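sorry for the late reply, my laptop died twice this morning and i had to redo everyting from scratch. anyway the thing you sent over, i finally got around to it. pasting the sequence first so we're on the same page, its 125 residues, then the predicted structure underneath. double check i copied it right bc i was rushing
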Amino acid sequence: MNDFINEGDKVTPKILLSKTNNQFYFKGTSRPENPKEFYSGVFSWFTNYFENPNDETVVQVQLDYFNTSTSKVLLDLFEFFEEKVNDSINIKVVWQYKTDDEEMMEAGEELLDLVDIPYEIQEVA
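ok and here's the structure:
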């Protein structure tokens, strides 16, 4: 399975989804003009990945900023994960926020409280 890589820029996050290296992360800013279109590749990748997932899937999300449209897509992604969680698929989201960025910490809590998947809110320097 090929890795999904988006290098990121001023409006899109760096994304690495690698089954081989067991790395799944989103980092940076997410305010693309059409988030649903931008993230469609992520949904497609995870759809294929869940046909034969790793024993454990830990998805790290460390966003500095995201717009309202992105929050809807993130919730859709977390709900997609929720549908996949079962005895054979083990998913956890680690929402990382920078020290003193209480707004981003609360955003993660609010989004992840809406779904029934394991998660951790983690402060990073």
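The chain has a mean pLDDT of 95.
thats about all i looked at so far, will dig more tmrw
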